[in-house]
Amino acid sequence: MYEVALTKATSISGDSREAMSTSILYNLARVYEDKENLDMAKEAYDKLLTHHPEYIDGWLLNPYDMARVQQAHMLANVNQVNEVHEILKNALTMQTSNLNLHAYYTLFFTQNNQLKVAKDFNYATLKDYE
Asked: What ranges in the chain are assigned the alpha helix state H?
């Protein structure tokens, strides 16, 4: 269903085409992820992030920031720690003042038993934003 909607959205002319395509592609990636089709989910996230590298995660910022942390979360669930680290590091480069992203990165370090790194990162964040 999302595949058909995406095809139709890309053929629309006007300002709404990009917004619709972006939203549908994100939802398609989520459906693939929920169905545990991680290869297709990763491919959809990668395609979305190619067009919108600023996409991080909607619950962290705004509607154009959804895919990056969701992709990291999906990869963390299958223990691809190095990829998750790169995704979050790059996201922080683009969104340096996003404290929710800082918190998620701290959670990532903690969940991967990198407690000293989490502590140092948290301390640096608090020092920068006190």
From this structure: 2-10, 16-34, 38-51, 67-77, 81-94, 99-111, 115-128
pTM: 0.56
Q: What are phi and psi of 15, to 5 degrees?
A: -70, -30
90 contact partners, CB below 8 Å, separation of at least 6: 68
Tokens of 47: 């395609």
Report yes or no: 52 and 27 within 8 Å, Cβ to Cβ. no
* DSSP single-letter state for residue 1: -
Label residue 82 by pLDDT band (50, 70, 90): very high
